[in-house]
Amino acid sequence: MSQPIIHKLEAESHVADAVAKYIADLSAKFIAANGSFSVVLSGGTLIDTLRKLLEPPYIGSIDWSKWLIFFLDERVVPLDHPDSNYKLAYDGFLSKVPIPQSNIYPIKEKLSPEEAADEYEQRLKQLVANGTLKASPITGFAKFDLMLVGMGPDGHVASLFCWHFQRFEKKKWVTFITDSPKPPPPRITFTFPLINSASEIAMVVTGEDAADAVKVALGENASYGYPLPVQKVSPEGNLTWFLDSEATSQL
């Protein structure tokens, strides 16, 4: 992996501007090369940070019909539930852009966490088999064009938490958790081998509550001690951090 690119920006609004240009450029690049652009969304504040894509020049210039949308992790709740990452993404972003509904891949409802994780993994494998998604030549896992990843104040990414064994999963593409330290407890999540097979990962981190974890992950003592989950993000392609001044206040 190459060294991460780190953008330290003044305000969250500047992060939103930078992320929009970054995504638009990648969209044009991957659509020109492959005819599609596979994007993995996470929850939290990330969806709001995508708001600039809903404005000119991006809203009218991006070829939304070629986007494929997936979810980094998901709460095992109905898709119209307030805790659903799909609902968050749909209300704040997906309903405002002309991405075909058939290109959006939420989890299946009315399954147990284990069943939902297995079903999502099998769907991803089928999309690789039929050529909708690329496969990593290194891992054989699906190789998404772009993963948009947030980070919790404790340094977790997706639903891979520091003291949970799911962060060590090597074989599964998608796993499940029934005791998330943040409610709701049941979730499914991409594993690190799948996350790190990506072509591009954007770590989008804003706000003062992230400052301590950013200091651990990017500070001068980052290689010391037990790594936070965010420190395991190491894609085959490029890792780009987008940070505001509050998130970098401890660096």
TrEMBL record:
Functional pathway: Carbohydrate degradation; pentose phosphate pathway; D-ribulose 5-phosphate from D-glucose 6-phosphate (oxidative stage): step 2/3
> What is the species of this protein?
Ambrosia artemisiifolia
The family line of this record is: Belongs to the glucosamine/galactosamine-6-phosphate isomerase family. 6-phosphogluconolactonase subfamily.
Q: Is Transferase tagged as a keyword?
A: no
Q: Which InterPro entries match?
A: 6-phosphogluconolactonase_DevB, 6PGL, Glc/Gal-6P_isomerase, NagB/RpiA_transferase-like
Question: Which molecular-function annotations from GO does this UniProt entry contain?
Answer: 6-phosphogluconolactonase activity
Reaction catalyzed: 6-phospho-D-glucono-1,5-lactone + H2O = 6-phospho-D-gluconate + H(+)
Keyword check for Hydrolase:
yes
- Which GO biological process annotations does it have? carbohydrate metabolic process; pentose-phosphate shunt
The UniProt keywords, alphabetically, are:
Hydrolase
List the CDD domains hit by this protein, alphabetically.
6PGL
- The domain of life is Eukaryota
Where is the organism placed in the taxonomic lineage, from the top? Eukaryota, Viridiplantae, Streptophyta, Embryophyta, Tracheophyta
Q: What is this protein called?
A: Probable 6-phosphogluconolactonase
Identify the EC number(s).
3.1.1.31
Which Pfam families does this chain map to?
A: Glucosamine_iso
The Glucosamine/galactosamine-6-phosphate isomerase domain extends over: 12-241
Q: Which NCBIfam families match?
A: pgl
